[in-house]
TrEMBL record:
Gene3D superfamilies: 3.30.420.40. This is Fructokinase. InterPro entries: ATPase_NBD (IPR043129), ROK (IPR000600), ROK_cs (IPR049874). Keywords: Carbohydrate metabolism, Transferase. Its EC number is 2.7.1.4. It is an enzyme of class 2 (transferase). The gene is mak. It comes from Shewanella septentrionalis. GO terms for molecular function: fructokinase activity.
């Protein structure tokens, strides 16, 4: 079976085709048209191109930076705002004469890592993408768990747990709430905190490099970051106790996270015991598009 996975982002559309063994047999990336009908046309053209090239008909899965509402059947919460309010799966399925599966891109990330990535063989996988923003997805037995409201994994838009006095009412989030996890532990939040303490850096990676060089402000900022990340993930462990947590996004490339976080997690997990593995992703920026292909299962 040929599986097509598509990552529909705000600036680019990326397509991969996988064979039965998960081997990539086709890949292409194009700019995203910033208009709905043009976006559908571009998706149809991409699928047609790969199927004609490989002389096979494929299943189609798409990851989007939003969700399909289970109540209206329309896209919502997408930062690619021109697809909001449209039945993208229905419209695309009608053009391609087959069912199309669509899931949130963070859920696709979790599925990718659960099927044949860093969490392969694990039953319950929590995938957290920590980059400019902060999102998460849940995969159970290799399939998306999106929940009855279609928002399973919207971890980043809960309040930072066990907030300290100097953390209350200090951040605002695009979602309309204050003190969301995203505003503290995203790469953007990490840099904001460092700059507020008097540091100068443009990325979390840069702060980590300064920490390794012995910079005291960077070391203190990283310690705060790890503590906040531990609090945030401890909530996940206390509620669903996943078999493994996989980190993605730019911040996941900070190696010190994987040595320091396990030391702090037990301070916040119920019972003060925690052996939950927290691991780096296997497929990097390609994980989401591969997960979209695996929406049809293996």
């Amino acid at each position: 079976m040929l599986r097509i996975g598509i990552d529909l982002g705000g600036t680019k559309i990326e397509l991969v085709a996988l064979d039965d063994d998960g081997k990539e047999v086709f890949r292409k990336r194009i700019p995203t048209p910033r208009e709905y009908v043009a976006t559908v046309d571009a998706l149809v053209a991409l699928v047609t191109e790969v199927e004609e090239s490989l002389q096979q008909t494929a299943t189609i899965g798409i990851g989007i930076p939003g969700v399909i509402s289970p109540f209206t059947g329309l896209v919502k919460n997408a930062n690619s705002t021109w697809i909001n309010g449209h039945p993208l799966d229905v419209d695309l399925g009608a053009r391609l004469n087959r069912k199309v599966k669509i899931a949130n891109d963070a859920n696709c990330f979790a599925v990718s890592e659960a099927v044949d990535g860093a969490a392969a063989g694990k039953s319950v996988v929590f995938g957290a993408i920590i980059g400019t923003g902060c999102g998460a997805g849940i995969a159970i037995k290799g399939q998306v768990h999106d929940g009855g409201n279609g928002i399973g994994g919207e971890w980043g838009h809960n309040p930072l747990p066990w907030m300290k006095a100097d953390e209350f009412n200090t951040t605002t989030c695009f979602c309309g709430n204050r003190d969301c996890i995203e505003t503290f532990i995203s790469g953007t939040g990490f840099v904001r905190d460092f700059r507020a303490a008097g540091g100068v850096a443009d990325s979390g990676i840069e702060i980590a490099q300064m920490m390794q060089a012995g910079d005291p402000l960077a070391t203190q900022a990283f310690d705060r970051f790890i503590d906040r990340l531990a609090r945030s993930l401890a909530h996940v462990i206390n509620m669903m106790d996943p078999d493994v947590i996989v980190l993605g996004g730019g911040v996941s490339n900070i190696d010190a996270i994987y040595t320091e976080l396990p030391k702090v997690l037990p301070l916040y997990v119920v019972g003060r015991e925690c052996q939950t593995p927290v691991v780096k992703n296997c497929y990097g920026a390609s994980s989401g598009v591969r997960g979209a292909a695996w929406l049809w299962g293996r």
